[in-house]
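This is your field. Please look over both lines of this record.
***
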Amino acid sequence: MSCSPTLLVLAAGMGSRYGGIKQMDPVGPDGEFILDYSIYDAWRAGFGKVVLVIREELEEPLREHFGNRLDGKVEVEYVVQSLDRLPAGFVTPPTRKKPWGTGHAIWCARNAIHGPFAMVNADDFYGRESFTEMAALLADPAFGRNSCGIVAFRLNNTLSENGSVSRGICAVENGRLTDVVERTTIEALPGGKARYQNEDGSWTPLTGEEPTSMNLWGFPVELFPELDRQLVEFLQANLQEPKKEFFIPTVVNTLIKKEGWNSLVRTSPERWFGMTYSEDRKLVLDQVKNLTAQGVYPPCLWR
C-alpha cells in the first residue's frame, strides 16, 4: 500500500445552476476539464491515488476521457454515488430527487480509501499552491488519528460575478478551526465585500476577508466510522425532508466541538474560479489560457 495520500474528487453534481455536466466541460487547450488540473496539481504535490465519486452515467465517458493518460502517474478508482446508497435500514423516499450532499459523497467512497486523503469539488479550480499546502498539512506531525484540516481561501477570492454561491465561513484561532458554517446564498458586493442571506430572507454583511471553505479538506481514514455514525443520525432526523443535505462542514463542526478533534488550518493565496453558472465558463477559459501562457501548466497536461 502506498504511503502517499489520496485525492477524493466529488464529481457527481447535477449542474442545475450551470445547465449541463460542468465537471466534463472542456476548458483546457487539449480538452482538459477543471478536474484534470486538480489531479495534475495533486500529482505534482505527491498524491498517489485519485478516487472519483460520480453518477453512474458519467463513469464510461470519464474512463474514455482519461484513458491511459494517468498511467504511471496516479492510480484511479471510480465510486458511484446514488440516492439509494444508504446505511443499512434506510430506504430513499420517492420524493427525494436532490443528492444527499457532500458528506454522503465521502461516505460512498469509504471502501476505496485506506489512508490520509484530501477532498475537492470537480468543478472548482484550486491552484497549485493549494495542493502544496494540503500535502504539507497531511504530513504535519500535528495531523493524527483524531485530526482533520482545511486549506482555506479568502472569501472575496472565491465569489462569482454571475450569481450567489454556497461557501463554508470559517472561524480560526491560533491556526486551528473552531467553527465552520455553510452559507448557501452569498453574494459579492462592490469593494470586495459580500453578504449572505438568512432563512428569513434578511441579509448579513461580510467583510470579504473571512477564511472560507472551498471543500479542500484533509482527513485521516479514521473519519469513516464517525461519518457513518453522523450520517445515520442525519437520516433518522431528515429522511423525509426532500431538500435537506448532509454537508461536510456540519460533520467537521461535530468532530471539533463534540468529539474533541484537532482541526488544522492552512491558507491558500490562490484565486478560485469555477463552473457554478454557465456565464462562468468564459472566465475559466481565459484563466486557464493565461496560466498556460505563463508556463504554470503545459499545453497538454498528460501527453
Q: What stands out?
A: The chain has seven helices and 14 strands.
